[in-house]
Amino acid sequence: MASLIVSFSLLFLLTVHTADGFLHSMTGTCLFNSTKADDIAYIESYYFNKLKFISFDSRVGKYVGYTEFGVSNAKRWNEGPEVIQRRTTKERYCVDNVGNDYNHAVTKSAEPYVRLHSETPPAGKHPSMLVCSVYDFYPKQISVSWRRDGQEVSTDVTSTDELADGDWFYQIHSHLEYTPRSGEKISCVVEHASLSKPLVTDWDPSMPESERNKIAIGASGLILGLILSLAGFIYYRRKVRGLIPVPQS
Domains (ranges, CATH) in the chain? Predict the structure, then answer.
């Protein structure tokens, strides 16, 4: 598994307004991939109108300038008390806070949910295709596989990469092209850090999905029609009860 890179930062802004409008800013950032002090770095950077002109990196241990003005200030700060203060910032600012941030990021997880459906396959050697769509899981690492009558399927299977939703969560889609056999059992198996055991979803071939959708839509329409009819009948009965009969001469 790739190492987890997490960062948190504080941003301090100092603005000086003139006729043209200038912006001077400084950022202080902690980078870490574990709670060990050797895996933590503190970076402090200074910008003028979005151009970085000087920075301090605890892994380097001194200020480095990127412009003429930055180079001159780096030389002065490296010879003064500023660099000594910055060398202790990692311990004071980062090490004391990394534990909470790291544990929160590592332990965050969300269980996936699975939708198994059929689609018309592209031109190929099989007449049928199943799609196992897995949604809203975190962290990113996940395993999606297929079983046919209890045996893992390794051919005619294609999968997308883990796709980021942009809100911490991911989705992935696996396709199985196959030729149906009577009485067989096909399952999609999902393994993820948030699950205590593999999540197995069995395919029900008793009725094509399009037909099931038609029945569901028809049933919904029937229920809605009955509700409207009942409401109309109740309204009619109440209206009739409120009428006063007029004697006929």
Answer: 6-107 (3.10.320.10), 113-202 (2.60.40.10)
